[in-house]
Design a protein that fits this description.
Elements (H helix, E strand, L loop, with lengths): L21 E2 L19 E6 L14 H6 L7 E3 L5 E3 L2 E8 L2 E6 L13 H13 L12 E6 L2 E6 L6 H4 L28 E7 L3 E6 L12 E6 L3 H10 L4 E2 L4 H4 L7 E14 L9 H10 L2 H7 L5 E3 L30 E7 L4 H15 L3 E7 L5 H5 L5 E7 L8 H8 L13 H12 L4 H17 L2 E13 L3 E2 L1 E2 L13 E2 L1
Parallel strand pairs: 2-11, 2-12, 15-16, 15-17
Antiparallel strand pairs: 1-20, 3-4, 5-6, 6-8, 7-8, 9-10, 10-11, 12-18, 13-17, 13-18, 14-18, 19-21
Helix pairs in contact: 10-11, 11-12
């Protein structure tokens, strides 16, 4: 095992690879399709998009890095449909609307050699609830945790039918008690996954070795060597030159320069949506919202801006959520009025490179339909407050539709409920609120999914949000990489099954 240079704070999660789709792709020096050279002892070299932003804190999005490295695990994982499946918990029971009991898997050891016990699990979960700030998955959520024998009981402050899904978040992974003894949480050598984190080089690199005592099927690769490469051109070059085996988030502009066999496009639960201000301005009129709806040419956006590497939106939820295709037929759409030169402000942000281009294309489409369009583009930090305050008539947003629990209801409530905290459309519609309330209180499974699709239909009938397209992320693998995960939720990348030929 490599010597530990510096122990950094973090917690993470590993999802079971068989629950999600996997695949592979390739590169070697001077070509795009051959096997990469230089990987020793079956170690996999990964070039990642973003360096740690919060010192690998488990209570930030850095937790997803450790999840993608398979170095720590949660009690529960999600299958492709978003339903909970056993991981460090083998089973669970809902005792009453607010109380759940989880049975902890036996025979598991942490990477520091200590055993996984109910007390250790309870301590890890309490650390998350007591953190400041709390993990995003616990925002507004009250949990009380107790351990008895080989079970952990979790009591929520309010009815929470999604508690098992909530416990699948990488921000609630379970580390050894020794991880929590200092001022910060230390993920180095304290997880339970098939790879043990042995070394972290600040925001530059990280190294993991195969954990020989893993409770499941052992890792097929000898280890993982991670480098953080924020520049997309440099990441693509690493794939071409053979200095990386797996590359995260290849930019659309670079994808055309790579052999198609070396890249995989993964549908993401992220939708580019045109939010229309229903609270003030011209789009208070449903007929003008309908005119904007009818003006949109989604195919032109996908082909012209995304070079065909996106999916035209049929609803708020896209192909990354397989059951969204079961949406019901809609009726009751408002007829469009003639805009007759109505002036509107169309805003977006520059942090995502494609959005200003989308804004320009939409401006042209809306003007052809008869609107007069004034465009506003700023950095997100300087435009979010005005968007939430209803300062714009229309706002283009790239929005994750499945948040940490793996369930779209939270996103819909946030964005379209009367009291939603991210209600850019200023929407307050009784039919929408009623549908959202039903979706929120329905237990997970087919009935909840049907209720979510009914809520989606209610939202779309208002034309407060016009979904444009669903994004894809482009991932690259070297030709000798086998079974890297292609995970729409971005929780998995290198799993126990991933290896080099």
């Amino acid at each position: 095992m490599r010597p530990t240079r510096r122990a950094l704070p973090a917690v993470a999660l590993t999802l079971t690879a068989s629950l999600l789709l996997t695949g592979c792709f390739a590169s070697s020096p001077g070509t795009d399709a051959g096997p990469a050279e230089g990987a020793a002892d079956g170690r996999i070299r990964v070039a990642m998009l973003q360096p740690p932003r919060s010192g690998l804190s488990p209570f930030s999005d850095d937790a997803f890095k450790l999840s993608r490295w398979s170095t720590a695990e949660t009690l529960v994982v999600l299958d492709e449909a978003g339903d909970p499946q056993p991981a460090l918990a083998t089973e669970w029971t809902r005792n009453d609307p607010r109380t759940w009991t989880f049975t902890i898997r036996q025979g598991v050891t942490f990477h520091d050699g200590s055993p996984l016990t109910a007390d250790a699990v309870a301590g890890a979960l309490r650390a998350a609830t007591e953190a400041s700030p709390k993990p995003r998955i616990l925002d507004g959520v009250e949990l009380r945790i107790s351990a008895e024998g080989d079970t952990v009981t979790v009591t929520t402050g309010e009815d929470d039918p999604l508690l098992p899904q909530r416990l699948s978040s990488p921000q609630l992974s379970i580390l050894a008690p020794s991880a929590y003894t200092g001022a910060t949480v230390n993920p180095v050598g304290t997880g339970t996954g098939p790879f043990v984190l042995t070394e972290v080089d600040g925001t530059t690199a990280a190294h993991l070795d195969r954990y020989e005592e893993y409770w499941g099927e052992p890792a097929r690769a000898g280890g993982i060597d991670v480098t953080f490469v924020p520049d997309g051109t440099a990441r693509a070059a690493a794939l071409r030159s053979g200095t990386a085996d797996i590359v995260e988030a290849v930019p659309v502009s670079q994808a055309a320069l790579l052999d198609e066999e070396t890249i995989t496009e993964v549908p993401m639960p992220r939708t580019n949506t045109l939010y229309l201000n229903t609270g003030s301005g011209p789009f208070r009129d449903p007929a003008l919202r309908a005119a904007a709806r009818d003006a949109i040419d989604r195919a032109a956006l996908v082909e012209g801006v995304y070079e065909g590497r996106a999916d035209q939106a049929e609803g708020l939820l896209g192909p990354a959520i397989p059951w969204a295709a079961e949406r019901p037929e809609r009726s009751g759409r408002t007829e469009a009025a003639d805009p007759a030169g109505t002036t509107i402000t169309l805003a977006t942000f520059s942090d995502r490179a494609e959005l200003p281009e989308v804004a320009t294309a939409l401006q042209q489409q809306l003007e052809r339909a008869g609107f007069t369009v004034e465009q506003v583009v700023r950095e997100y930090a300087h435009i979010e407050a005005d968007a939430l305050a209803g300062e714009f008539d229309a706002f283009i947003l790239s929005r994750a539709t499945v948040l940490d629990s793996g369930d779209p209801a939270a996103y819909m409530v946030s964005d379209f409920g009367c009291d939603g905290s991210f209600n850019i459309s200023q929407l307050c519609d009784p039919a929408v609120d009623q549908a959202l309330e039903l979706a929120e209180r329905t237990p997970s499974g087919p009935e909840r999914r049907a209720a979510i699709l009914q809520a989606e239909a209610a939202i779309l009938n208002t034309d407060a949000a016009i979904p444009l397209l669903h994004e894809r992320v482009i991932q690259g693998d070297a030709g000798n990489v086998v079974d890297s995960a292609k995970d729409p939720r971005e929780r998995l990348l290198v799993t126990a099954d991933t290896h080099l030929r």
